[in-house]
Design brief:
about 850 residues, alpha+beta, Jelly Rolls, FAD/NAD(P)-binding domain, 4 domains, seven-stranded mixed β-sheet, four-stranded antiparallel β-sheet, disordered N terminus, disordered C terminus
């Protein structure tokens, strides 16, 4: 992004006064960052994003920008930086983050990043400019995390900038307006684009909600993004609501096989942005939400600062979701919150690789001295590897247990750097066990586990989980044990650990297992944990929801937080429909939320045709009643090219309608090979569907659901080893007697595996329509069902749902092969 140097202007300023103003450039706004990276994690604490020379021990390419000064002359140059290890070395060891500032190719005499625990302005001396145009460069000298916030040039040689560099001062120097620019008014404003935030955006937008997403990084995904690469943990899609988790599965990635759509964080992030745009979500990427506007105790808008150019915007809304992880928006709004004194830390994942040739690494006297200490990845006779802690790449490189995760965040992250560089220094220069290895990557964006939790109407506790307490508004399934991390006693002073204290900066954790951490899964977390108890229009999703510190150990994993986002999106659609706040959804519209959970908001994923082109299959209609019945044959034909084609389903016009009170009506038939009927579903349009055919190749259970104006009823069906299907007790009617359908009224029947499907499970959904203007009387429009099983020539077991069709012909719009398959039946008009 092009960026000029700015100065304060005013209509009444004289040229002399104008020229006397200092000129500020933000380092993150350089026209070319080279090898420096934009670090915005700590801008709320230190005032701004900064650039980081994250070279892993090798100096990075220069950052550069052009400068237009108000006039030639002498300027004192100030650079805002710090010695990032001075917290531990007290300045007694040469700073690792040294860098230079070059003006028109000539380095200033001062070397920066060499002093000060805190951020401050370091004097670079006076430079003379013969012209008003010049070129500025930042030159990294070490590759070891040097950092620069901004450069200031002052024509007043006696001027000293304020060390805290407040935002108002910055905006004034940059010539920005005092008030942020209003960008729009939305139903739902989501702040934080991690898995929870993205899931909520897609869920809400697909249900017709006008949504904006404010996110403070260039890529979405949060801890699961390509900048942090924490794979998702936790499971999704549990009965009785197996569609909850469909969005997470659609957008997420993980290491290994977990059922998510991607195995690459980059691919997942690219898809997330594409899906958000397809859902018409307005994206404010690279904007950090850092202020709220309140009206009558409600949030009216959020102000956000751009992490690249510093511009400020305002986004208004009716309802807001804090999915920042840290409860940032809730705390700014005055929401009740809690945080622990001792807490889990943050991890910066790193790993190494073999270059195939000798690879040196400099000594790091400023890092943690691990020469005589064990650490993960070290394996020598004196310090043998420890089971489960034998890799450089691991979650257990973790710092910050007793330090404030908000105010001390930068120091906590930097301690992870010191641990990593200290370990690699020992491996390369003491043990000399990996002569050809380099550090392949190290994430400068931390993966956090815990900070602030916003309080809701229910605060979920560990005892709730272990006792199995049931909440009537259980909406999010928890599947991860209560996983809490502590400093690992093996790597630290054992007698200190016994006394209950630890080193000031421990960096290796463990997660001890025990019966007290376990509970029967899934446990359904209540909806009342997902909205603020004192800010009426604030939702929460992520690790900042309303739970105790112990319960957070289960709640915090990303597959689970993503399902929170899905539920918030559904609840927001109810808020928008009835113009109510989140609490009223629980009090009045909980059944409607359950209905949305039943349907889900995921996107179908068709797969290719498996066999046989072209296709044709047929069956018979057979009905028996108290006095009459109807019989006939139906056929479906088409071409399976590209896995998608139109097909007709018809039967004779002269068949008789099943009379009221008739018994079983059935439609039997089969398909060759592994064909399944399917069609994408427009959930936002409110369609409902009826099942037609399912495939099964292993025993299990199905669920059959009828939805009508009076609600929904379910029947569980068991599948035996021989393929037979039988009800597990009870019967199902479409509603109370006589069980008739209403004209132009959608009804839903869903056939699913209890295990959530996969390629062995199937879902068939369709919609019933009235046939013609003067169609069959309502008293004669009746749907009955049965289930049977039959083997095919290929040995694939097929389970069929038998349906009666009132009269006339119907059109089967599409035939598609899919793991989750859906077919729409519509009447001709």
């Amino acid at each position: 992004m092009m960026r000029r140097w700015y100065m304060v202007t005013g209509l009444l300023c004289s040229w002399h006064a104008l020229a006397a103003q200092p000129v500020l450039v933000e380092a993150e706004a350089f026209q070319a960052l080279g090898g420096w990276v934009n670090d915005s994690q700590f801008m709320d604490q230190m005032g701004s994003p900064f650039v980081l020379a994250h070279g892993l021990g090798r100096p990075v390419e220069d950052a550069a920008t052009s400068v237009t000064l108000p006039s030639p002359g002498h300027y004192r140059i100030w650079v805002r930086s710090r010695d990032w290890v001075a917290q531990w070395t007290n300045g007694k060891i040469q700073a690792p983050g040294r860098f230079q500032v070059l003006v028109d190719g000539k380095a200033l005499q001062t070397t920066f990043g060499t002093e000060g625990v805190d951020w401050h302005w370091q004097d670079g001396g006076v430079a003379e400019f013969a012209t008003a145009e010049c070129r500025l460069r930042l030159r990294d000298l070490t590759g070891f995390e040097g950092r620069c916030d901004a450069v200031l040039l002052s024509p007043d040689l006696d001027y000293t900038p304020p060390d805290d560099a407040p935002a108002v001062w910055r905006r004034e120097l940059l010539g920005y307006p005092k008030a942020p620019v209003l960008k729009g008014d939305y139903d739902l404003v989501v702040v934080g684009g991690g898995i929870a935030g993205v899931s909520s955006c897609l869920s809400a937008a697909r249900l017709g909600v006008k949504v904006a997403l404010i996110h403070d990084r260039p890529v979405t995904g949060g801890a699961a993004s390509s900048e942090s690469t924490v794979g998702l943990c936790g499971r999704t899609c549990f009965e009785p609501y197996p569609e909850v988790g469909a969005v997470v599965n659609e957008i997420a990635w993980s290491y290994g096989e977990r059922g998510f759509a991607f195995t690459s964080a980059t691919e997942a992030g690219n898809y997330q942005v594409q899906a958000l745009k397809e859902a018409s979500v307005d994206l404010y990427i690279n904007f950090r939400g850092n202020k709220v506007f309140m009206e009558d105790g409600r949030i009216r808008g959020v102000a956000a600062a751009n992490i690249v150019d510093g511009t400020h915007i305002r986004v208004n809304g009716k309802w807001f979701l804090d999915s920042t992880g840290d409860g940032c928006i809730g705390v700014l709004a005055g929401a009740d919150y809690d945080t622990g004194i001792f807490h889990m830390g943050r991890t910066n994942l790193w790993t190494v690789h073999d270059t195939g040739e000798p690879a040196s690494f400099p000594r790091c006297p400023w890092a943690i001295n691990l020469t005589n200490k064990p650490f993960p990845g070290r394996n020598t006779p004196e310090f043998p590897a420890i089971k489960s802690f034998d890799s450089f790449f691991g979650w257990y490189w973790e710092s910050g247990f007793k330090h404030d995760p908000i105010t001390r965040g930068e120091w906590i992250r930097d301690n992870n750097f010191r641990a990593m560089y200290g370990a690699w220094d020992v491996i390369k220069n003491v043990d000399k066990t990996h002569p050809g290895h380099h550090i392949r990557f190290a994430r400068w964006i931390s993966g956090k586990r815990e900070s602030r939790r916003l309080m809701g109407d229910v605060i979920l506790t560990a005892q709730n989980l272990t006792s199995g307490r049931v909440y009537r508004d259980g909406v999010v399934p928890l599947s991860w044990r209560m996983d809490f991390h502590f400093p690992h006693p093996h790597f630290f002073d054992a007698d200190r650990a016994r006394e209950g204290t630890f080193h000031d900066w421990p960096f290796i954790s463990h997660a001890p297992h025990g019966d007290r951490d376990r509970f029967r899964t899934p446990y359904w977390m209540p909806y009342r944990c997902l909205y603020s108890r004192n800010i009426p229009n604030l939702f929460m999703a992520g690790r900042d929801v309303s739970v105790t510190q112990e319960a957070l150990g289960s709640v915090r994993v990303q597959a689970t937080t993503g399902m929170m986002g899905e539920i918030v999106g559904m609840a927001a659609s109810i808020c928008a429909r009835y113009q109510v706040d989140p609490r009223v959804v629980y009090e009045t519209y909980l059944d409607e939320l359950f209905d949305l959970m039943d349907r889900g908001t995921g996107k179908p994923k068709p797969i290719k045709v498996l066999a046989y082109e072209p296709f044709a299959f047929e069956g018979r209609l057979n009905a028996a009643g108290s006095g009459s019945g109807w019989k006939g044959h139906w056929t479906a034909t088409g071409d399976s090219e590209a896995g998608l084609s139109a097909a007709s389903l018809s039967y004779p016009d002269d068949v008789e309608v099943l009379p009221q009170g008739g018994s079983l009506s059935e439609t039997t038939g089969g398909v060759a090979g592994q064909r399944l009927l399917a069609n994408p579903v427009n959930l936002a349009g409110g369609y409902t569907y009826v099942s037609f055919l399912a495939r099964r190749s292993e025993t299990g259970s199905f669920r059959l659901t009828f939805n009508n104006a009076q609600g929904h009823q379910r029947l569980a069906l068991s599948v035996a080893d021989d393929g037979s299907v039988a009800p597990q007790g009870g019967t199902v009617a479409t509603n109370s007697a006589p069980g008739l359908f209403k004209a132009d009224t959608p009804y839903l029947v869903v056939l699913k595996f209890f295990n959530g499907g996969g390629d062995q499970g199937a879902v068939a959904l369709a919609r019933l329509f009235e046939v013609g203007k003067d169609s069959v009387p309502a008293s004669q429009r009746k749907l009955t069902w049965d289930v049977s099983s039959a083997g095919s020539r290929t040995g694939v077991q097929q389970d069929r749902l038998m349906l009666s069709i009132p009269t006339g012909s119907v059109q089967l719009d599409e035939l598609r092969i899919a793991t989750s398959w859906k077919g729409i039946l519509t009447a001709p008009r």
